[in-house]
Structures are given as C-alpha cells and as structure tokens.
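tool_call: predict_structure(chain=1)
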Amino acid sequence: MKRVLKPFFLAAATVTLLGGCASMTPEECLSADWYQQGLHDGGRGQSMALVEEHREACAKVGVEVDINRYRAGREEGLRTYCTPSVGFDEGLRGRYYSNVCAPALERTFLDSYRQGRRIYEAQQRVDSLKNDLNSKQYALERAKDDDSRARIRRQMRDLDDSLRRARDDLYYAERAARDYRSY
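tool_result:
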C-alpha cells in the first residue's frame, strides 16, 4: 500500500508546488478581465513585470493578455496606491517600494512611506532587543558560576540601555509621523 501511495503523494506535491509558482491559475486566466487584473495589481503597487508572469501562466491555457486593458487598469490602480496614506501603511508594514509611482505622485508617497518605515524599523529594533534581553535572562538563570553571571548581567545592562534608546527612537518616530500626518 505504501508503494502505491508514495508516487501519488509525490505527484500531488509536485502539482501543488508548480501551481503555486504561477501568478494566475488556469481558471483565472480563462475568466480574466484584464482591466480588473491591472487595477488589482496596480492597487497593490506591483511592477509592470508582473504582466510577464501573467503572460507565461496564461499562455499555458492558450489565453493572451490584453496588454492595453491591463495597462489602463494598472494605471488607475496605481493612482489609488500612490497616495500618502498607502505609502505610510506600506512603510509601517515593512514592505518594499518598487518605484512604480509617477513622478507627480511619488514625492508625497515616499515622504509618507519613509515615516511609516521609520516606525517599522524602530519597532523591529525594540523587538530584537527584547528578544536578546530575554535570551540573556535565560542564560543568567542557567549560569554556573559568579563570573558568568557577572558577565551576563553587564550584557543585560548594556542591552537594557540600548532598549531604552530604541524605545525613545520609536516614540520619536511615532510622534514625528503623528505631527507630519496632522498637516
């Protein structure tokens, strides 16, 4: 029984993995409204390179991308994406910007993106230092001798100082963003 099921599971896993790589499923390709797909991709800040992935995925089922409709939808989606509020949210989530906004919209988008990104990075630093401090606490509890405990306590004091500064950075980043967004 095991010999019979093993090839089946391997084949199923291969299909799942290969299917997961396509930007669109065969069903999505067959029913695609290219304007709506462009609108969706543009609204997520996707680069135009994604249309090539759509072309490859859909060519397998004999569907051609209507590039003009896709491009028109994507341009509209980018106007929704390239706003200061979306820029801030993208930075706050730690997402990367793919240089997709038109020059007229990019400056304000990037200003807000940087504000959000500054908060994200400060929060990441705080979280990392907390984890380091917890690890040192664990090591302190397991230390066998006084010299080790003294060394770990010094490291914990240094980490605690760094954590205090990181929390200050986070506070000031949040405050700067609040002040910036209130204009």
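agent: The first helix runs from residue 2 to 21. Proceeding to next step.
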